[in-house]
């Protein structure tokens, strides 16, 4: 689990990022989880936006993504979810 200090650090890093994925009407499916996992391996930190037409609420979507990708939830702010997962090959972020 991430400490409060680590979450603050990751939030500051994520501030400048644009959302890469959007969760819409279809919600979270296996294909999306696979793509998000691959993107996390490459980037470690990413934002995902939950569209207004999504059937599930953002907290449910965040839980599904965290469980599916084995990532850490950094924060849910507005309709944006910030995820972090340490990369095995291309580690760029060093946590405090």
From TrEMBL:
One of the Pfam families matching this protein, by short name: CRS1_YhbY
Lineage: Bacteria, Bacillati, Bacillota, Bacilli, Bacillales
PROSITE patterns recorded: CRM
Keyword list, A-Z: RNA-binding
Keyword RNA-binding: yes
Record's keyword annotation contains Hydrolase: no
Protein name: RNA-binding protein
InterPro entries for this protein: RNA-binding_CRM, RNA-binding_domain, RNA-binding_YhbY, YhbY-like_sf
Domain CRM as annotated: residue spans: 1-96
Gene Ontology molecular functions: RNA binding
């Amino acid at each position: 689990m991430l400490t409060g200090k680590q979450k603050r650090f990751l939030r500051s890093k994520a501030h400048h990022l644009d959302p890469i994925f959007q969760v819409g009407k279809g919600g979270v499916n296996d294909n999306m989880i696979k793509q998000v996992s691959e993107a996390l391996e490459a980037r470690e930190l990413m934002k995902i936006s939950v569209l207004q037409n999504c059937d599930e609420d953002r907290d449910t979507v965040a839980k599904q993504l965290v469980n599916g990708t084995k990532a850490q939830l950094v924060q849910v702010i507005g309709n944006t979810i910030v995820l972090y997962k340490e990369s095995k090959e291309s580690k760029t972020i060093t946590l405090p």
